[in-house]
Here is the input.
Amino acid sequence: MDLVDGLRVLVASVETGSFSGAAGRLGISPKLASKYLAELEARLGTRLLHRTTRRLGLTAAGEQLMTQLPDWLDQLDEMTGALREARRGLSGTLRVSAPVTYGEMRIGPLLRDFRAPHPDLVIDLRLSDRFVDLAAEGIDLAIRIGRLDDSALVARKLGVIRLLVVAAPAYLAQHGQPAQAADLTRHLCLRDTNMRGDGAWPLTEAGQLHRIAVSGNFLANSARLTRDLAVQGEGIAICPDYVVLDDLARGRLVHVLPQASGPVLDIHAVHLGQRRLARRTRALVDHLAGALGSAP
Here is the structure.
């Protein structure tokens, strides 16, 4: 066993809380992770972890080692990575978490552009609409939309998303055009259940915020499906701008109630605060900020 491998297993085990979590992060088997840790303890002549059936806990020696070890490993990666990257560009694996629809439509293409000049870089994009545990799942960078709740994470704002009220021309021809936000209560509305809150649509009209209690025949936890239903004339929808901009440009959808503005949601890149950001992660954050900050 290489000493550095054993040290990486120790850090990953502590941060994920298990050998299986460490193994998943490092790309090895749980059995091998446990073996590396045992060999590290034998080499150092001291116990580093308490093992129980439920959890791992640091011994006093383990706590002492962990005060400096994560930063030391990060600095080692930084130094060796800089030598490789000077010749071939960025390398290693970047694990990125993002919401499903936004990840598919916006983040995926941007990651492809980012990776193109770096043949040794591996992108591991994990799409989920839940807030993943960055430490437990070994995520380097997560894309979050809306209000941030976890103050333990370091965040950088990348851009904004605006929610737009839209409908198909065929629907408006049949049911009429709402003149003000309150008129939406008399229309078929398509509800995206990913939106936080009680289901009411928050719209600001003439400087006043209104919460419109809408109703309709379709609910879905997908902005893309809600857009598709709107295009097919099933009702009025409130959708993120990145989902409907092409449909608006092509006339498949119409911006309804342009005088009533929907919520503006911040897009953030978040990462764990106790670790030094790898060069590849810093470069990706800069790339995303440049692209999303200038998005229409």
Q: What stands out?
A: The mean pLDDT is 88. The chain has three domains: 3-67, 88-158+266-293, 161-265. The CA atoms of residues 171 and 214 lie 16 Å apart. The radius of gyration is 24 Å.
